[in-house]
Structures are given as C-alpha cells and as structure tokens.
Amino acid sequence: MSSPAATELESIVMDWLGNLLRLPKSFLFSGNGGGVIHGSTCEAIVCTMAASRDQMLSRIGGDNIGKLVVYGSDQTHSALQKASQIVGINAKNFRAIEATRSTTFALSPESLKLAISSDIEAGLVPLFLCATVGTTATTAVDPLGPLCDVAKHHGMWVHVDAAYAGSACICPEFRHFIDGIEGVDSFSFNAHKWFFTGLDCCCLWVKNPGSLTSSLSANPEFLRNKPTDSKQVVDYKDWQIALSRRFRAMKLWLVLRSYGVVNLRNFLRSHVKMAKLFEGLVAMDQRFEIVVPRNFSMVCFRVSPWVATSKGAPTSNSFHQNGIDINVEKCTNEVNCKLLEAINASGRVFMTHAMVGGMYVIRCAVGVTLTEEKHMAWKVVQEHADVILKNHGDDGDANLKLPLLDMIA
Fold it and tell me: Lesser CB count within 10 Å: N end or C end of the chain?
C-alpha cells in the first residue's frame, strides 16, 4: 500500500535474476513461485524453516515440535544452526553431518540417509535439510539431486544456500553446479558477495509463497487495506521477519542495468580464470598442496606436511624426534598459520583461513571488480614461505627448531 513501485521493481528483478540462473519457472512470479530480497542468509533460512515447521506441525500436531530435526553438513554455514535455535528446534535435534576429504567436503547422500534412519528409529521427525552450493570453508558443492531424493522420501523441506557461488551460475558453464534445483523448496544466494552489490542483498526464491505468508503474516486492523485483502498483490511484509523494509531492489536493479548480463558473466569468468592461474602456480611449487579441487574463484592450499615437518612424506600422524612426540598435523597447521600471518602482515595481499578435516587451510579468493592478474601475488607467498620454512628446519637440517617443538609437543 505504501510502496507499490518498490514492490513491483523487486518482483521484476527477482524474476530477471531467476531467469539468468535458469531457475525452474516454479520459482518465479511468472510461474507459481516468487522471490524476495532479505538482509542475510540467516533471515532467509529462518523464514523458510518457520514455514517448513508450521507445515509439518499441521500434520503431526503442534505438541511434537520437540521431535523435529534439522540437517546439514559440518561445512554448512552457522546460519543454519542459528536459524534452528530461533525457530524453536531442540538443540539436540540439530545434525551437522561430517563431510570428509574423500567427498571433497560435500555432504554425502549416504551419510544423510543413515542420520535420518537413526532419527526415525528414535521416534524423531526429519524436517529440514540445508544443502550448500559453495561452502564457506572450501566452496564445496553438495549433490542436490541425490540429496533431494533422500529428503523428499521423508517429506522434508530442502533449502539450498548458494550465498557465494550462486552468482557464478548465471554463466552457462557453471550452471551445472545447481543441477537438481527443481527438486528443492527454496533457494538463496547473496548478491552482496560475488555479484557486485552492496550489503545487504540476499535473494530468496520459494516454490510456494503461500507457505511463507501463512507462517509470517500478521494482519492487525491498522495494516488492513483493499489491495492486500484482494490477494492479487505481493505484500512483502508477509515474506520476511520485520514489518518495514528497505528498497533493496534498487541497488540490484542498478547492478543489472549498469553492467548488463555479458559484463557480469565476463567479470565472473575473469575471476575464475585468475584463481585458476593462482592454482597452477601453487601446483608448480612442490612444497605446497591444493587441499581440495577448485570449483570457483577460491583456491585452498597449504604447505605440505612433509615440508612442514622436514621428515619426508609422513607415513603416520606422528613421529618421535629429539625425545619429543611430534604430531604431524599440528606441526603442519602451525607452519601454515604462521605463513598466513606473515602474508597478511606484508600489506601486499590479504588471504583468509579455514579449518577442515583438522587441517589449517589458507584461502586465496578472487571476487572484486578491480582485481587483475598482477594482483595474484604468489611471489609474496613464496617469499614468506622461504623465511618461515628456513626458520623451522627447511634449510636441510632434519631437526625442527626447538621453539616450534615446544609449542606443538
């Protein structure tokens, strides 16, 4: 009633973007679905989980909320756990299923199936699965189709969090990462991450908008108006947590209209190309290893354990030296932590880290419009690695330096 033009523009740009991603028509306003712009992924998950909760409780009874279970992997963003707390899911019923290096840290459908079977045997009710396309730590991609096959067998709501990597899927060559999207209930990605849009702009699409509005709508007399009562218009207050909202669609419209589809795709491709270049440079230096295959524009690497320990390729998780038991992984993690600190302290480049499978991993991410190949500062990494590895025994001495041994023993 107060902002019909803002509402219309949001509906339009969400369909534009949905078409760029080649989302099924069931997610678009031009079909039976629709899109809304939230502030964050957490908000999007809270809203969709609330909708799924209410749908399930309408079938099994409101007294059974304590039986509802939420699933993700241990690589799923913490927004999922936070959302489940907000929505009222018992903390004991949150499942962070381990994802291992053998599956490149993607959620295994077999592991999900086992977790669900165990919960059903215990008298619990599977409710919500959050699959991720481009996990925070390693940009792993969960297999949407097989996961949906498992979840749908139990009537679960499936949400896809593509906060970072969803942007790349406007490029035809990366669209396969969301194959199986037709089987999910909701899908979100953050235009404020890798789509050159200012905070905050989390784009959420749902197949059944009515499931959102039935859970989130509140209609006191002072908000009643003929357009909303007619059910012929979109009233976004019922698609989100807050009553009031910002005109987020304008900045997304500006990005789409300013760059255009061709330029947006070219920017994304150039970032992937630069990351691929960096990955190649890492692979050429035998002191380093690529921890997981690169999917998009982020490279996960580290100093190899055999270099970090100066012992040759380790055949076990520990060894005995100078009267001290040395844990290979702890030693390797310490070296990589020091390397990252040195890289960032140089002021020439900034990288981040993650812990996956007990490994401390350095992450080089490309995602800013002004980044060029000359900024791929691999020499900075090598220079600091030379110093750190020399100080820790990479000068040919088979013994690690005692200060490091004392720290990690």
Answer: N
